[in-house]
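can u pls check wat happens w/ magnesium ion
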Amino acid sequence: MSTVVANTQTKATLAIQFGEFQNTASSEPIWLRDARKAAFEQFEFLPWPTSKDEEWRRTDIRAFKLSAFDLIQNQPAPTLDDLNAVGPLRDALAAHYATGIVQIAGQTTQPADSSKLGRVTLTDFQSALAIHGDLIKKHLFQTVKPEGDALAALHASIFRGGIVLYVPKGVKLEFPLYALSALTGNHRVDTSHTLIILEDDSEATLVHDLATTGESKPGLHLGAVEIVVGKNAHLKYVRIQNWDDKTWHFSRERAVVDAGGSIQWTIGGLGSRLSKVNQETALTGPKASAQVNGVMFTTGNQHLAYFTRQDHQAPNTTSDLLYKGGLSGKSRTVWKGMIAVEKDAQKTDAYQKNDSLVLSSHARADSIPGLEIEANDVRCTHGATAGQVDPEMVFYFQARGIPAETAKRLVVEGFFANVYDRISVEPVRESLRAAVAQKLAIGKS
Amino acid sequence: MSRKSLRIENLHVSVEGKSILRGVNLTINQGETHALMGPNGSGKSTLSYALMGHPNYEITDGSAFIDDVNLLDMEPDDRAKAGLFLAFQYPTSIPGVTMANFLRHAVTNVRMPDRKEGEDLISMRDFRKELKQKMDELGMDGEFARRYLNEGFSGGEKKRAEVLQLAMLQPAFAILDETDSGLDIDAVRVVSEGVNRVAKAQGTGVLVITHYQRILNYIQPQFVHILYGGKIVENGGPELVTTLELEGYDWIRAKYPNEAQIEDELESTVLTS
Ligand SMILES: Nc1ncnc2c1ncn2[C@@H]1O[C@H](COP(=O)(O)OP(=O)(O)OP(=O)(O)O)[C@@H](O)[C@H]1O
Ligand SMILES: [Mg+2]
């Protein structure tokens, strides 16, 4: 009862703040202001998630208070301190990539070098709105719908900033790009929106780090990722969530892939206090394909929940999902996967697998695969395993002088190797591997 | 450098409640080479595992020291740091961990025993150079460094990889548990030379566990021991090996009827289990 009252109050406060937000963002085009308003109405209408909802049954967010975060403030510009704090994160990326964009709490602090991008756009949301207004209008909120749930609606109504990657028809970007979305001690709320558009026959690779630097304080990411892959276009996207363990991470992510197109989409789940991520791929044209990878390593009291969908909506489409998790401490992961094959999607070939390695008796991994198949000529397979680190392996490491705890972590790293082996772009693979290795704390290489 | 001693006294070991070793006494000084022989199931690997600290092997009595360092109080990794090395009869596969990465961690830990977890590993450059040199000496293709440790290695390749690890870790004492089995004739020579090189450079005390004379032609033991019925029943020189080659274990059986009975009991539990 009391939480309902509290949320009613929060909603009332938010309604006032939303009005102010609309005033401060008055330079936005009318269509966007209208879309935000509609989304806010959705938010007011939609119930706040509770443990009675299937997606929130295992993921308890009662400790998450919207009122603790100044969601729709006109955030102060990042200071020199913020920039310095982000420096090392940026440098680690800049050393291996031609160019990239850096943002703190959704505000750009370092734009990408456009001289290297040619006809490709990698920029912040506001700039993209200015130069590609029609394109943004065409795609925004079309892939991830605000009416999904209260959090999605709230994001759509108040999101500030974000990253837009746009690759025009026929353009093949030959080098990978990076994006860094950072939170710092002063900037604790990121509501940014990621929009990736690859037109027909184009290609691109993007690694996207989400990371906290500086003092650890309660933080929030309330975001969305929309990806549109055109006909015969090919995207490789790696998104490494590496917030500190006081940050709440809510993210709805969906890609649509048209005929003959492909996406290789890899998620690293390392940080956050609690994550709730929906990672969905829709194959909307014949012969579209998706490879979806996940690597999670959790420690302490972390709780990471992933809901994946592989939507086969056209014939001869393939999807292959491999999620691997390592858990220590009292941490918990939840993976619920769904392969949905529509009636017309004959000759679908779909696969999903979730393997977990549990390092501590207090950690817990839940895996719930699922199939919904309406076509009759398909091949769909799924599997899930959960196990502990083989003590014979640990002994072998120990016999060579490597302590048991390090041994277990090296075994976990080895367990992830078949995900890494799938990622053919070297710097991208190394970015992911390095982030995981750092979380595993097994010594610098 | 003063020579260290590995002293095993009255060692009793049980596995899953079954008593296997019943009072093993053996002293190995650095610079010495010993051979340990004995029929299948007599407990040779049990001795190796127990010394290295495998959790399934319970020490019920006795002691094992390197000088005044009590091995039996230590975790296996600390035993390795104290200078003990075991080349396994059946090395474990480690999926996803390359031999190079594994060895870099191993070498770092053994050479810098006081290093704290998470601190830097030994320099990649120096490590690579050393690894390449040792692999060349053992006739191993450089590609093995990038392979996942023991994954899909042939029997002989696994044994070679064990000796490569020995060469990289340069221990004070090395136990080679049937390192010769599964090796072709040329490989026995190459691997033996590798062991001898380390032994000479480091003054490593070596215990070769084997069933065959062949490897002992290359790694020549000054001392030969026969494990039977849970005890070392015979201690001698290289002539013992020749006797075993010619006569098998029947004379041991006849000479040690009590141990023979124990050996039979062990065998029957093997057969029924
Ligand atoms: N983990 C175990 N569980 C049950 N029995 C075991 C285990 N390890 C060893 N044993 C038993 O202990 C006895 C000694 O085995 P061990 O492997 O030490 O013999 P070995 O002398 O090395 O033989 P081989 O020459 O065949 O290698 C055998 O009877 C074996 O079955
Ligand atoms: Mg044996």
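Residues 259 and 285 of chain A are 4 Å apart (CA to CA).
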